[in-house]
Amino acid sequence: MNWIKSPCPVLDESFKQAAIERQGQLTKPPGALGELEDIAIRMAYIQQLHKPSADNPAIAVFAADHGVAEEGVSAFPQEVTVQMVMNFLQGGAAISVMANRLNAPLEIVDVGILTELPAHKGLVIQRAAAGTANSANEAAMTEEQLQLALKAGYDAVERVIDTGADIFIGGEMGIANTTAASALYSALLGITPDQATGAGTGLDDKGIQHKISIVKKILAKHEDCGNNALEWLRCAGGFEIVALTGAYIRAAQCRLPVLVDGFISSVAALCAVRIQPDVNEYLFFSHVSAEQGHRLVLETLGHKPLLDLGMRLGEGSGAAVAVSLLQSACALHTQMATFAEAAVATKKQ
Asked: Which of 107, 172, 291, 315 is catalytic?
């Protein structure tokens, strides 16, 4: 538990200033590359390098089941969680395809799916329990289970650092996890369940209204959590959301940039920032989800999404799609010639 509160490293501002100066010397009008310039400057600052890189992304997808699924809040049955985990491992899921295209290592971390799977290449078994309890009736997890799930995120980041990763993507899988996320958004942002709750796996209007009623029940049950993000994670979260939170905190502590995915991943990012505010410096948000409420958390954390494609799949898929933008930004920053190098006249004074 002590590692959660360990501070993120103090960054040397000279790397940011050097990156800003280099952008002003490249063979282009100032600001001509738009937000790509800002991305490159932030990457140089976070990595503390004059030549930042996003050529070695690493992906970890955390999977777990939710007791609140028994309330009928998902359009899909709970066994889909384990079925999708197998699909990940067999290469048939969207994130599997994108990891292959990026030549990025992909591991699936079982933090607590109902059905424990046998050993499989690419599968890490680090279970907190066989699914959470039903958060509408009791705390989703015990304090011990919370710590186990946080440690699963910590360990995943330690493994990707050992591979030489320069960007971390965390994905998630867990039927009913948009219900958990909606409850966390409502609690931590102070917004209503109606604002925070969407269609998830494809609910109709009636299904959404039922889901909102369950979110309200969760909030009422655990109102004593107040503004404590860790307590809200324990009482209303899921093991995969907790693991993502732990992973984001550890990545920031290790000065590893994080490319955040969509609705579920962003609530983990919000929790991470509430626990350790300096984590926010290390986050890039890949896209804004079609899921209701996502845009609000980006605004709250002061981030602009790289993409707006109407995606709402999860798994880390939106983040994987956005990797090429970070790679382009870094390549342009490091490989373009300066006016002096190219013997090109600068702007008239």
From this structure: 315
